[in-house]
Amino acid sequence: MEVFWQNLRYGFRVLAKSPGFAVMAVLTLAVGIGANTSIFTVLNSVLLRPLPYHEPDRLLIVSERSARFESSSVAYENFKDWRAQNHSFEDICLWRRRDYTITGDRGPEHINGREVSAGFFTLLGVRPVLGRDLRPDEDREGANPVTLISYGLWQRRFGGRDDVIGKTVHLTAGLNDRNYTIVGVAPQNFWFYSPSDVFIAVGATNEMWLKQRLEREGSRGIARLKPGVSLTQATSDMDTIAKRLAAAYPEANTGVGVAMTSMLDYTVSDIRGTLRLLFGAVALLLLIACVNVANLLLSRVAPRQRELAVRMALGASRRRIAAQLLTESVLLALLGGLAGLGLASLGTSALLRALPDSLPRAETIGIDQNVALFLLITSMATGILFGLAPVWQAVRSNVNLTLKEGSRGSGGSRHHRLQNTLVISELALALVLLVCSGLTIRTMAKLAKVDPGFRPDNVVTFSLGFSRLHYDQPAKVRILLKNVLDRIQNVSGVEAVASTTDLMMSDDSETQFYVAERPKPDLKDYSWTMFYVTSPQYLQTMGIRLLRGRFFTDQDDLSAPNVAVIDEELARSVFPNQDPIGQHLILHFPQADQPREIVGIVQHVKHWGLAQDDTANIRSQFYFPMAQVPDQIYSLVQGMEYGVRTRLEPEAARAAITHELNALDADMPVYNVLTMNEIIRASLARQRFATLLFLLFAGAALLLGAIGTYGVLSYAVSQRTHEMGVRMALGAGAPDILRLVLQRGARLIALGIAIGLMAAFAFSRLLASMLYHVTATDPITFFAVALMLIAVAIAACYIPARRATKVDPIIALRYE
Predict the structure, then answer these.
(1) Among the residues of 355-398, which ranges form H helices?
(2) Which of 72, 101, 246, 802 could be 253's S-S partner, Cβ–Cβ 3.0 to 4.6 Å?
């Protein structure tokens, strides 16, 4: 221990003698360690930290599975059978997301909700801060409506009063328009995939889909395994139940299985690959920083060779010398880690602002003990890693030869070879990051040119909630929706306004269908399509191009023949060798299953996002008029969304829309007021986030690579000052000296580029899933990036080469 403290004190004195070197090395390490810590903070919170529930490893998400869908919604009737027949779970609950409108003394408000089975909170191991969980007798048809509310809703609408239990709150969602008795308040930090303000018993909602085994409305199951039961055992158990249900209900369950995955895997499956790639990229950046500092230390070891040789001549062992140098390296790394902690804190704050809203568990991101431990271990490992090169150089030196060389000290050819190797490695690693950055930039450039299938410019969208207490009949709802369109159409600057059940790149609804002119197939062989119920001018308002036939008109109402417009994808896939116009489609849709004549074909809309649409399970699209929705299912249109094409600026449009609708009915909350361009940007948030980080890492790598190249050549010039003086004295001109230095730099650059291209060729393939219409080995990107790195590296070489031409031969010949 005494030796350690001696080494540490001596290390501080050595660094204090060279503050410029110390600051440069610490800042270089701080960038690498800080960036790694920032990304690890995100990765730790999203991927590694256990879910905030009791024994989360036993929680599973349970879905249905079919030939078309690996994971899909669950039929409520199937769920009830799962719950009753399984032998693997302590309990299983159903849940689905549902938007609600809350009304009362504080005015209307749109809130997010969950419809859940009884025992939902108990299954998760979460205790309400007030009240209790939902009971089984409250989760059935005809039960008195009850709800748990979130901590936030309790605070903002009930002032956090303890007497909230037993009070009522009026909630509206589709056919659910009732007063609910509050029986509990969720904990303050409770979340379940997204913030939710109310938790309603799903079995008491009295909706049609609950009684029809064929209907699946965005629901999933969550189950807790019994102690000692494995996922494999549970899968076998549920497969047996699925086969039993397929035999009992062949129309609904033939080919339907059960898919189960851990809750954590289900939560992070979409983002895991991206975060791991980013962590790999930032690890490369740290490695480049280590190489850079190793080169700096090598430059310092050479002048200290005589000092170290004297110490060894006086009896110091090579192990003691190595320990001293490693202590200095680790000390530098710890100082870099300390500075990196500050950068990590700033970097994490910046990441939180840049993170896509869809990133799961983003609200839990923060520096904790795991992050602090990671930073400490990274700093220690980094110090040892970059300290190995100077240690190896020092302990292998010949003591007698070093003492004979005099105070000038020469690193020898071995020293130069080691520095050259490090520079080559640094350039190669920088090229890998630059290629990855270039590929993602090319992807974003490609996406910017993608035609979404409509004209998003100057379109403002919004959603509207209203209560069935005021609009309790289909006729009243029809009048209201017409009034909404009329009021907004009359706003100055508004060119057109229309409504739809599902806004593109936002919500989605799917159904099955078959062609009426063909033999009716079995249900399992029906085709799938996305469907939209729209006002007459919706397609024109959104700028969706008509390819053939006609759009809807005001005459397409209940008194006219049922009509539909399809997109080019449906026309291509269902009618490859036929004219679709005049054909009839029959939807598998309750009380709306009459044949609909195809009157138009429109351009395909990239509903799933500009990058993901091509890989979606369901791409074809089907539109039919709102005016032809039967009264029996008119509650469908209570979730309408609106698009407004306007010449107004977005903020002015938001204000005008809200003002007009409040004037029409002050109890209707207006929410999700967004421009269509904002929605498109949100759909690309993850790609943009990854591109930004790759760009920052690549920029830092490029800078460090240039600094490393400059440092090695600058040191080489200083070591060869005497030689260059002799050359110039013997007649060599400035161009000869310039060429001599640049040739050495060019060799390093060429080797670094060659090795980097091979490494990038392998590493870039890991990016394939993030790219769009750009191959992982895109030659344009590889060529452009290589040229850029060559240009920057040559510029870094030119500065010391230019300085070498300024050497005064007389002074150089005296150089010692």
Answers:
(1) 369-395
(2) 246
Spatial distance between the Cα atoms of 370 and 379, rounded to a whole number of angstroms: 14
* Cβ(814)–Cβ(721) below 8 Å: no
Structure tokens at 69: 């869908």
Asked if 595 and 586 count as a contact pair (C-beta separation under 8 A), the reply is yes
Query: Residue 705 corresponds to which tokens in the numbers above?
Result: 């690579």
Structure tokens at 453: 């299938």
DSSP string, 525-587: G-EEEEEEEE-TTHHHHTTPPEEEE----TT-STTSPPEEEEEHHHHHHH-TTS--TT-EEEE
Q: Which residues of 584-609 are buried (b: 16+ CB within 10 A; e: fewer)?
A: bbbbbbeebeeebebbbbbbbbbbbb
Which is nearest to 410 in space by CA: 718, 96, 14?
Answer: 718
State the alpha helices, DSSP H only, in 139-230: 151-158
Give the whole-angstrom CA distance, residue 412 versus residue 421. Answer: 15
Backbone phi, psi, residue 260, to 5°: -130, 140
Task: Measure the CA–CA gap between 589 and 739, rounded to whole angstroms.
Answer: 79
CA–CA separation, 752 vs 746, rounded Å?
10
User: Coil, helix or strand for 179?
Assistant: strand
Both tokens of residue 798? 């030119």
Sign of CA dihedral 703, 709, 712, 716: negative
Confidence of residue 410 (pLDDT cuts 50, 70, 90): very low
How many CB atoms sit inside 10 A of residue 370's CB?
Answer: 14
CA distance 209 to 47: 35
Confidence of residue 718 (pLDDT cuts 50, 70, 90): low
Q: Is the pLDDT of residue 803 over 80?
A: no
Ramachandran region, residue 62 (left: φ > 0; alpha: ψ -120 to 50; beta: rest): beta
Identify the pLDDT of residue 615: 77
Phi, psi of 454 (to 5 degrees): -155, 175
Q: Residue 259's closest CA among 73, 522, 446?
A: 73
Q: What is the DSSP string of 641-709?
A: EEEEEESS-HHHHHHHHHHHHHHH-TTS-EEEEEEHHHHHHHHTHHHHHHHHHHHHHHHHHHHHHHHHH
SS (H, E, C) 393-440: HHHCCCHHHHHHCCCCCCCHHHHHHHHHHHHHHHHHHHHHHHHHHHHH
Mean pLDDT of all residues in 611-615: 80
Determine the Cα angle at 639 with ends 636 and 640, to 5°. Answer: 100
- What is the value of pTM for the model shown? 0.81
Which amino acid is located at 469 in the chain? L
Give dist(CA 466, CA 116) in Å, integer. Answer: 23
Q: What is the pLDDT of residues 149-208, one digit of tens each?
A: 999 999 999 999 999 999 999 888 766 778 999 999 999 989 888 889 999 999 988 777
C-alpha 472: how far from its chain's center?
42
Q: Which two tokens stand for residue 582?
A: 């005049």
Q: Containing H/E element for 203?
A: none
What is the greatest pairwise CA distance in the chain? 108
Three-class DSSP category at 641: strand
User: Which sign does the torsion angle of CA 310, 314, 319, 320 carry?
Assistant: negative
Whole-angstrom distance, CA of residue 491 vs CA of residue 489: 6
Task: Name residue, tokens 């158990």.
Answer: 237
Rounded CA separation 659/663 (Å) = 6
User: What CA–CA distance (Å, rounded) separates 518 from 442?
Assistant: 46
Q: Tokens for 731?
A: 């007649």
Q: How far is CA 119 from the centre of its chain?
A: 32
Q: What is the pLDDT of residue 8?
A: 64
Residue located via tokens 């339907």? 256
Tokens of 685: 């948030």
Residue 293 is given by DSSP the state: H
With contact defined as beta carbons under 8 Å apart, do 713 and 801 qualify? yes
What local confidence, expressed as pLDDT, does residue 399 receive?
Answer: 54
Reported confidence tier of residue 92, pLDDT bands at 50, 70, 90: very high
Query: Nearest-5° angle of CA 321, CA 325, CA 331?
Result: 145
